[in-house]
Amino acid sequence: MDIVGVLVLLLVCVFTAADGWRGLSSASSPRVCVVGGGPAGFYTAQQLLKARQDALVDIYERLPVPFGLVRFGVAPDHPEVKNVINTFTQTAHHERCSFHGNVNVGRDVSVEELRQAYHAVVLSNGAEANRPMGIPGENLSGVFAAKDFVGWYNGIPANKELCPDLSCETAVILGQGNVALDVARILLSPLDMLKATDITQHALNALAGSGVRRVLIVGRRGPLQIACTIKELRELGNLPNTRPELLLGDLEGIEETLKDLPRPRKRLTELLLKAVNGGDNKAEKSWSFRFCRSPVEVLAGADGKRAAGIRLALNKLEGSGENVRAVPTDQLEDVNCGLIISSIGYKSILIDPAVPFDPRRSVVPNDMGRVQDAPGLYCSGWVKRGPTGVIATTMNDSFDTAHVILQDMESGLLDLSIKKPGAQAISGLLQTRGVRTVLFSEWEKINAEEERRGKPHGKPREKLLDVEEMLQIAWSSRIMDILTFLVLLLVCVFTAADGVRTVLFSEWEKINAEEERRGKPHGKPREKLLDVEEMLQIGWS
Ligand code: FAD
Ligand code: NAP
Q1: pTM confidence score
Q2: Atom 30 of ligand 1 has which residue's CA nearest to it?
Q3: 129-347 matches 28-128+348-436 in CATH topology
Q4: In the chain, what are the domain boundaries?
Q5: Is there a contact between 298 and 135 (Cβ–Cβ < 8 Å)?
Q6: Is the CB of residue 123 less than 8 Å from the CB of residue 398?
């Protein structure tokens, strides 16, 4: 009996270490999985868990690390925006939620397999590509998509080798949205403003040697259509040692339109007008907006390989207000520059050929989050509505999708009487394919290591850039868990063989209860005991 007890204990221990207790929940619960661990994925999960006490939610994330663009997009000098991570962490710690990192849906497991295993599958995989400019010379060296440039300074593993050459004096950014302004600010900020952020060290080193002194932010439409927001424009205007170089002619006649503009647009336009008149003439760096210009060709330097400039078509505007259209004229303008960053928007990609996809809009075609012609399949976030909107927009949109799923559960459109295996089935599939997942507790190991590495430099973290290294750190914890349990097993076996006292399963349950009690104040499912002596003491108490 004692040996049986020990074996059961071992099985429980290994199971706990490998998959967490959450997988043991009732098989008749609604099981939902979310593809993508960014804001859309976490907000959808949060709402489902809150609204249904029996729902089990699994989040599958391609990378070993969670949070999508909150980690890899939001500018390093906007730490307050990243506070949403605390809410996402609470969701991940929820007893009915599991995070499975390092799972590339579409490659490691198909969406159809997920649909078989879950009552509902939510695609929240964001927008991981960039809109191409579609002009000659786009692939010359010195031309970057903002997505990659941002990924480089924010630590996306795939962008760690980008190494942009920042030796030129003039950089041109195409597009006048908030991403364009983030990039301009990073290029122009004094190093001291970035040093204490989570910007990658390699980006910091490159920026320290940067020769960029002038940044032109080029838009295809006019000053009344810029896509950035007030806070971001104000931040650019307030950069030390940097002056705006706006041309008064570009803003001609604008002042008179102010009174008719909606409030946010009015405020934005007032800031532009203020920038024309402001600025410290002694400043060494400058930024400027160029309006009514579309890129037509990247001009190569003498070697034919590196960008040396950009040719722009001058546009005339047709229509009025926000719906104004840019129509190119035959007038062209060449601008000399050594760095070109195309910031004309992100783009979702098709992750699985079986998923409906609108190639023109690059979104999953859907009706309020219900994917068209695919019962049980839903979408939220940027893959649902396109690559625009701040985190709050994504939150509302994800709550909407969750409400639709809940409605479909209530109405019987989703048949909950069919039992679904959920993560158990998918874990089995992944195992046979040699895919090992990263649990949320294992991400927390990576998190702790990043924070540890950042500390000596006064940074909140130094992001790990290498997926292999992330995995090594994540899984070292699992190996330690299993080792701890093996030690426990050895103690038990030794004890059983020697006629000394054994730990019965009911005694393990006391240890279990104590671990759960200790975890509770920290919002964790358990705080594992690490000391065998202490385990025995509690087991036998
Ligand atoms: P994402 O955040 O992109 O999350 C998608 C997730 O899905 C990612 O984790 C990705 O790895 C995962 N995934 C992709 N493919 C797969 C797959 N095949 N299998 C499994 N997982 C997959 N908003 C603000 O409010 N404030 C800001 O300061 C701000 N700054 C921004 C800066 C930049 C550069 C950008 C681009 C956006 C910024 N935003 C900001 C907007 C905000 O980031 C978005 O609204 C939000 O991230 C969209 O959430 P999402 O979950 O749809 O996409
Ligand atoms: P965006 O706001 O949509 O801006 C895209 C810019 O590219 C616009 O100026 C657009 O001009 C231009 N553009 C698009 N297609 C073009 C083309 N073919 N040729 C020339 N120009 C073209 O996108 P984004 O800057 O990538 O930002 C994405 C979302 O994330 C936005 O909602 C943004 O607010 C959010 N975000 C927020 C923050 C923040 O809150 N701090 C930071 C970054 C991003 P038109 O207007 O003429 O189309």
Answers
A1: 0.88
A2: 74
A3: no
A4: 28-128+348-436, 129-347
A5: yes
A6: no
What percentage of the chain's residues is helix, strand, coil (to nearest 5)?
A: 45, 20, 35
Q: Does the 129-347 domain belong in CATH 3.50.50.60?
A: yes
Side chain identity at 33, as an amino acid letter?
A: C
Instruction: Please compute, for residue 465, the number of CA atoms within 13 A of its CA located in the half-sphere on the CB side.
Output: 17
Q: Per-residue DSSP letters for 288-302?
A: EEE-SEEEEEEEE-T
Q: How far is CA 394 from CA 60, 384, 400, in A?
A: 18, 10, 10
Question: Are 397 and 380 a contacting pair, CB within 8 Å?
Answer: yes
Task: Point out the ligand 2 atom lying closest to the alpha carbon of residue 229.
Answer: 34
Contact 368, 404 (CB under 8 A): yes
346 CB near ligand 2 (under 6 Å) = yes
Three-state SS for 460-474 is CCCCCCCHHHHHHHH
Task: List the chain pLDDT tens, one digit each, 541 residues.
Answer: 344 444 444 444 444 444 444 444 444 799 999 999 999 999 999 999 999 999 999 999 999 999 999 999 999 999 999 999 999 999 999 999 999 999 999 999 999 999 999 999 999 999 999 999 999 999 999 999 999 999 999 999 999 999 999 999 999 999 999 999 999 999 999 999 999 999 999 999 999 999 999 999 999 999 999 999 999 999 999 999 999 999 888 888 898 999 999 999 999 999 999 988 777 889 999 999 999 999 999 999 999 999 999 999 999 999 987 889 999 999 999 999 999 999 999 999 999 999 999 999 999 999 999 999 999 999 999 999 999 999 999 999 999 999 999 999 999 999 999 999 999 999 999 999 999 999 999 999 999 999 999 999 999 999 999 999 999 999 995 666 677 677 767 765 665 565 567 888 888 888 998 998 898 888 888 999 998 988 998 888 8
How far apart are alpha carbons 218 and 216 in whole angstroms?
6
Backbone angles phi, psi at 140, to 5 degrees: -65, 155
Residues in Cβ contact with 374 at an 8 Å cutoff, skipping those fewer than 6 apart: 355, 356
Is the minimum distance from the CB of 235 to ligand 2 under 6 angstroms?
A: no
Q: Which CATH class is domain 28-128+348-436?
A: alpha beta
The residue whose CB lies within 8 Å of the most ligand 1 atoms, and thus the one to mutate among 84, 104, 123, 125, is 125
Helix (H) or strand (E) holding 315: strand 307-318
